[in-house]
Give the backbone structure.
Amino acid sequence: MCGRFVVARTVGELLTIFEADEIVGEMPGISYNVAPTQNIAILVDRSFEKDEAGAPVGELNREFHAARWGLVPRWAKSIDGAPLINGRIETILEKPSFKESVVRRRCVIPASGYYEWQVLADGSKQPFYIHAGDDGVFALAGLYEWWLDPSKAANDPTRWLLSATTLTKDSAPELSHIHDRNPLLLTPETFEAWIDPHIEGDQDLLDAIAAGSDEVAAEALFHKVSSEVGKVRVNEPSLISAL
């Protein structure tokens, strides 16, 4: 499970790195301790035209949007309850909360790195920072959804909530000693297929990104960090410093 991550790049830097066309709305800034239900930046390819079946047609616009971390299914009655911050790639096509988003509502979530806790022999937990290096950025595979708040008026512009989740898989061999799961990490090739809404999400696509994820994970860097990362209120560069 990935429950905390880091974005150590400005919005402008992310715009350049991911060659996005536009930033829509107010983006969250640099954070060394992104936690569930906070706003995160997600990258989507969006078409302004759709066919009769609702499938996108024509050219795509690559956009950054701010979304709540913790997917809210469109059929949910409220946003109360445990946030759906992770989806297991092995079961997302079976889960009502995720399966519709897999088809065409896929996104990329930029992250400089993420935190994971290793359980030690005495039962205590040691946090690690797993990252893409000082100059690198991971592209995490994600899903997004729009939820209509039934308690708000039809003319209230805040009645629509955009939310997102990250995806996880069995840990790559190089990271399995830290935790048994890791986020889905996209390669340049799987990135383009994952974000393209012209491509319908299916098991073949999931299998491809799972295989590619292990390639990226094999190159990931990691080191032990302070337990202060477990405190949501602590958000400073020292959190990613090696012990």
